[in-house]
Amino acid sequence: MGASTCLNAASALAQTQTPSAAATQQETDNPAQLLEGEQLEFEAQQLAYDNESDTVTARGDVILRGEDGSVRADQIVWDRGSGQILATGNIRFVDDRGNQLYTESLELNDKFEAGAMDDLLLALRAGGRLAARSGGRGEDGTVVLTDAAYTACAVTAEDGCAKNPSWRVTADRVTFDPDENRVMFKGAMLELFGARILPLPGLSLRTDGGAESGFLVPDLRITEVNGLELSGDYYWRISDNQDLSLGASVFTSVAPMARGQWRHLTEKGAYQVTGFATVSSRVADFTGVPTTESDPRGYLFANGRFQFSPEWSLTGSLRVASDRTFLRRYDLSRDDRLRSTINLERIDDDSYFSLAGWATQTLRINAEQGQIPVAIPALDYRKRIDEPVLGGKFELQANTLGLIRNDGQDTQRAFAGARWDLRKLTGLGQVVTFTGLLRGDVYHTQNSLSTQTEIYRGNEGWTGRGIATAAMDVEWPFVGEAFGGTQVLTPRVQIVASPKIRNLAVPNEDARAIDLEDSNLFALNRFPGYDRVEDGARVTWGIDWSLTKPGWRVKTTVGQSYRLDDQREVFPDGTGLSEKVSDFVGRTEVRYRDYLQFTHRFRLDKDNLAIRRNEIDATIGSQRTYFEVGYLRLNRDIQTVEDLQDREEFRVAARVAFNRNWSAFGSGVFNLTGADEDPTFAPDGFEPIRTRLGVAYQDDCIEMGLTWRRDFITAGDAERGNTFQLFFALRNLGFQ
């Protein structure tokens, strides 16, 4: 049925693209009177009326319009007495929902409800096509098709000729309910490239693009630890604003795993809850000699957002795993920590308020959970003053944070501050920004000796400090022509001064990962958080240069800072900021259309120009064929702080398209860190972390492929090994 029906449908579709002429010949004295008071409108080359039979006959590019749709055909005969409409020849019928029916013969009533038809093609508005040998309307208003087929693929090629779809669902009987926007199949069978591969009992779908209850196509995977895995799910569309998915995975080497997902859209927001549960062996003790136990295991993930008003909102998430290796063993996630959060926010044009809290579960094998803090509460409030103060913008801020640990240091912090900014443009084109900042901090800490790194502890008990910062920033852009494009050269100088600050008297919880780079070169405080503040006086210089020409975009920046006094106690050696003269930092970006993207970030030692940071990210190619490479080298030689160890990593990925729809792809992550750079890191010099290879097919309505992945790191019962996965997705059917 498919080839001939698609050919007829394609011909009908092509013919409907020719505009029809209005009636040019009338075979009645006054045809307008025939339609007076009726709800139907005709356009045709010929229009005739038979008084005896009370019928209207229209011929030649006929268009019949009503309140519930329209019909285009070679000929239409309308029996005004019975209300029956018979259309013949190259028919296109469009109903009030936008669905289009193509056939050669069609019966309608004056309410535009279709009756008997043969060799038809139904193009659904939400996508997808139904073809059938015959069809008709049932007493309940549904359209019943026999010997039918459905596909979401195009049935015509670019040249307008018919083509066979990549996949289709054939059925003995198909029922289309236009009121419910639902298509139901009886005796459905999935065909892939002409081969019948899978029965689909109880299959149904919606024509308005909405989801429909039913079974999803199974997922097939083979892993080193769990063996062959077959996963299946049932999707239950409870209502338009809530649904439930229930599924299970069956393994050849371990017990089955159950899962479920609940999603709910309310008047104020939406939330979802996902859970996994099983029983399997796990490593219960990673210290000394590992022990293995068989226990219930699982993972719970929930998140949501609620908007109570244009200003007020509440967001939250919950992520909890039964143990540290469950997610990796079952390939659910590679995160090394799970963070649960809650945040109440109020945002308007001039203020911001946040009351938040979070807890973190570590999944790192050697980390101590008792050292991981719980943050309650974390409050942040900012208020921008509408009226200018001394010509500039004035902003107030208040912040509190409480960190609680079971086996570590507890810290509470509160501060209040104000910031003033004035931005001016001089007559010579210089952009000058003046900034002033005042802040007062209060800290309280307990059990500080449990923190191993001394400079992170702070004083036991209550501690206060004051912060004052003044800055002036001058940018002077020069614009001109160069290399067939436009270049912009912008020298920049910044002066920042702060009195001595009691940095080491307070604990450091949020400003540990300090490293000079291009992104923080001109920051008032190069530390990433609030607990450490850069004091003293410094001068920072930088030069930005950019070139824009057709297809090309080049940007580069380089800079350095000079401090008037030493700050060796607050900046560890190796960060590039511990001496009076900082290291050189910079970034270069090159882009050519959407074909080439290249970014290089660096930090050079001020004394010998040794590379302390070398980071490269490059992509070349199109969406279908491309090559990506990434390289990171941190050579800071910092041995006193565990947060700033050296690292070296290489990443590569590629995809090559061949034929029209096929492609091969691969990727790899490789650790190049040596034991001399980080004695605590397991790999020594070179070790693959994971690699992936695969082949995929993709066209306008199907995506499928086979992937091989190898993990090289063992973490407890999440052992290293190979994973093979077959993925499969069909457009419009919601298959995973």
According to DSSP, the number of beta strands is 43
Look at the structure and give the mean pLDDT. 86
What does the largest sheet look like?
A: 26 strands, antiparallel, barrel
How far apart are the first and last residues' alpha carbons, in Å? Answer: 29 Å
Q: What proportion of the residues is helical, as a percent range?
A: under 10%
Percent strand equals: over 45%
Low-confidence regions: 1-38
Principal-axis shape: elongated
The DSSP helix count reads 3
Structure description:
Keywords: Cell outer membrane, Membrane, Signal. Involved in the assembly of lipopolysaccharide (LPS) at the surface of the outer membrane. InterPro entries: LipoPS_assembly_LptD, LptD, LptD_C. By secondary structure, this protein is an all-beta fold. Among the domains are: 41-216, lipopolysaccharide transport protein A fold (Sandwich); 421-615 and 634-645, no CATH class. Helices cover 3% and strands 58% of the residues. It is built from three helices and 43 strands. The strands form two sheets. The protein has a 26-stranded antiparallel β-barrel. Strand 9 and strand 10 form a beta hairpin. The model is unreliable at 1-38 (pLDDT under 50).
